[in-house]
Amino acid sequence: MAKTNPALGIIGGGQLGSLLASAAKKLNIHTVVLTDDNQAPAKHFCNEIITADYSDRAKVREFVNKVDVVTFEFENIPVNILEGIAQFKPVFPKPAINKIVQNRLLEKQFVNSLNIQTTLFEPIKNKLDLSSLKHFSPAILKTNTLGYDGKGQYVLNNQKDFDDLNISFDQDYILEKKIDLDKEISVIVTRYQDGTIISYEPIENVHKDQILNQSSIPANISKNLFEKAQDQAKIIAEKLDYVGTMCVEYFIDKKNNLLVNEIAPRVHNSGHLTINAFNISQFENHVRAVCNLEILPIKKVKNAKMLNILGLDIEKYRDKKFSNNEYFFDYLKKEPKEKRKMGHLTTLVD
Ligand code: ADP
Ligand code: MG
Question: What is the structure's pLDDT at 3?
């Protein structure tokens, strides 16, 4: 008898959860999304949705009972909730990984422990710690946990910015030296349960106001950096005993040094172009890995660039006519808030 596909539970119902659910549908995999957002766009893409606070035990149990394996679209779910779920159903990637990558300090220490370079950094607990590190300037102060899309970050370009910064220090911070960037790239890898790693080629990323604006392949980098970035991402996935798709974001400085910026233990915005540019997308590979399906080789179909569409800009695109090398994705979010990721456009190029 043919093996039946497992039902996949996805925690989080934003654009990443939606795109995961779409990829699962293509593979005939039933998806159940658990989200605390009653306007979660994933409702348009999954088979079933449960809306509840993540601490609502009865609802979480209902979710767990409906699925065979669980994954998540974002790394900031409390680890104890993921660990609770893991007592009943496999959770991939393993919840313990989140303890490291949820925390910028532990994440950088982990990366450095693998002999992989990051920016210079120091933990900051209070104003005194910060004042003693003015020589780091120009620098960026970031909350240790819960930041995304540049949230919780303060750029300190000179010593006066250090003096003027007026924040309460009610949480832990990390101070990073600001890099004089030549470029930013990311590498997306999928690691399967048998340890096989599939790596996409490096993607070149441009950020605006600390939010990803554009991604493209091929990245305009040397063969040496291309290989080094892929090798480092593979080492990180192996050392984390990772299962699923993950992303390593890198800085390249003006002296061509490759530095790990951060690890995303999930599918990643810079990999949206893999939906159209490859035979198998980062989302499909994630679903295949966590559901233990067949491993297929990836093949690039075309080069591509992807543009993020934020806030009210989405309205222009909803009315637009596209050529046949353009692929518009509307996340169907209710409110087009400023800087909110509302959709993206991928253009295939030669
Ligand atoms: P988030 O978790 O919000 O993605 P990141 O640490 O990746 O936070 O920062 C977002 C963007 O801000 C980066 O992709 C980069 O463009 C810029 N940035 C962050 N840290 C530095 C740094 N130390 N030097 C230079 N640019 C930085
Ligand atoms: Mg980032």
Answer: 61
Distance CA 120, CA 136 (A): 9
Residue 175 CA to ligand 1 centre (angstroms): 12
Show the domain range for 61. 8-91
3 vs 212, more confident: 212
CATH of residue 319:
3.30.470.20
Residue type at position 302: K
Instruction: Specify if 105 maps to a domain.
Output: no
E strand segments, 231-337 = 244-253, 258-264, 303-310, 326-330
74: pLDDT strictly greater than 70: yes
* CATH number of 33's domain: 3.40.50.20
249 CA closest ligand 1 atom index:
7
Q: Examine the domain organization and report whether 165 and 196 are in the same domain.
A: no
Ligand 1 geometric centre to CA of 306 (Å): 19
Tokens of 113: 């422990």
The pTM of the full predicted model, rounded to 2 decimals, is 0.95
Ligand 1 center–CA 22 separation, angstroms: 29
Helix (H) or strand (E) holding 189: strand 181-191
> Which residue's CA is the nearest one to ligand 1's atom 12?
210
Same domain, yes or no: 162 and 186: no
pLDDT one-digit tens code per residue, 229-238? 999 999 999 9
Inter-residue contact 195 to 294 (CB < 8 Å): no
Q: In testing the pocket of ligand 1, which one of 207, 262, 341 has its CB within 8 Å of the most ligand atoms?
A: 207
| Residue 2 confidence class, pLDDT cut points 50, 70, 90 | low
Distance of CA 41 from the midpoint of ligand 2 (Å): 22
State the average pLDDT for the chain.
95
Q: How confident is the model at residue 146 (pLDDT cuts 50, 70, 90)?
A: confident
Number of domains in the chain: 3
**Residue 114 falls inside a structural domain:** no
Question: Residue with the nearest Cα to atom 23 of ligand 1?
Answer: 178
